[in-house]
TrEMBL record:
Function: Specifically methylates guanosine-37 in various tRNAs.
Residues the entry annotates as binding S-adenosyl-L-methionine: G116, L140, G141, D142, Y143, V144, L145
Signal peptide extent: none
Name recorded for this polypeptide: tRNA (guanine-N(1)-)-methyltransferase
Family, as annotated: Belongs to the RNA methyltransferase TrmD family.
Subunit structure: Homodimer.
Stored NCBIfam families: PRK00026.1, trmD
Length: 236
């Protein structure tokens, strides 16, 4: 999977050079490229924002630099005969980003993240590129960040880890929270007793069926307690 990120803070994504996603990049499973939006602003001050039409506080990101940056990525993909990438715009005005959407995006060949700042990106950028590629406004949660970079990082990690081969043991992706609509079961490791707290006996029983049943029940109980909204009416 190729992932392009357009941002005024490309250095923010250097962290993707380490850990799991760093190894995936080294292995060629993920090709992540951060682009500086200011490279596509050609005035002396490399200006990427301006005052909003209609007034109001803050600044809006100008469409021209975005057009040049996104055209460059699109033209390269089209020139190489690759599939048209999907544009992801992290935004509090987007649809909720979920594990199901992460799994859906992990099936794609090429994602482009547009990280807005200030009061957001001129709407015409989304309107224009909707004619050329799939565009998804996705929200990490019902809160506002200073820009799209933190959200893009979270989404890239959630998607990247689902790309085949990135996680060494695919089994570890099964029964994770939200993978199948339930929260994950509690996990334990040695020592058997820690500060007077014991590992549940069933987990040391060697009875795999009993362990599986206990874990499933724990998932339902935890989901019912913490996220009843995830359960159907008859399970809540
Ligand atoms: N909630 C999200 S994704 C966001 C992006 C920018 N600000 O908030």
């Amino acid at each position: 999977m190729r992932i392009d990120i357009v941002t005024i803070f490309p250095e923010f994504f250097r962290v993707l050079d380490v850990s799991l996603l760093g190894r995936a990049r080294t292995a060629g499973l993920l090709d992540v490229r951060a682009h500086d939006l200011r490279d596509h602003a050609h005035d002396r001050h490399r200006t990427v924002d301006d005052t909003p039409y209609g007034g109001g506080a803050g600044m809006v990101m100008k469409p021209e630099p975005w057009g040049e940056a996104l055209d460059g990525i699109l033209d390269e993909a089209e020139g190489a005969g690759e599939t048209v990438p999907t544009l992801i715009v992290p935004s509090p005005a987007g649809e909720p980003f979920t594990q199901a959407i992460a799994a859906e995006l992990a099936q794609l060949d090429h994602l482009v993240f547009a990280c807005g700042r200030y009061e957001g990106i001129d709407q015409r950028v989304v309107d224009h590129y909707e004619e050329r590629m799939p565009v998804r406004l996705l929200s990490l949660g019902d809160y506002v960040l200073n820009g799209g970079e933190v959200a893009a990082m979270a989404m890239i990690e959630a998607v990247g880890r689902l790309v085949p081969g990135v996680v060494g043991n695919p089994e570890s992706l099964v029964e994770e929270s939200h993978e199948d609509g339930l929260l994950e079961y509690p996990s334990y490791t040695k020592p058997q007793v820690w500060r007077g707290l014991e590992v549940p006996d069933v987990l040391r029983s060697g009875n795999h069926g009993a362990v599986a049943a206990w874990r499933h029940e724990q998932r339902i109980e935890r989901t019912r307690r913490v996220r009843p909204d995830l359960l159907g009416d008859d399970d809540a």
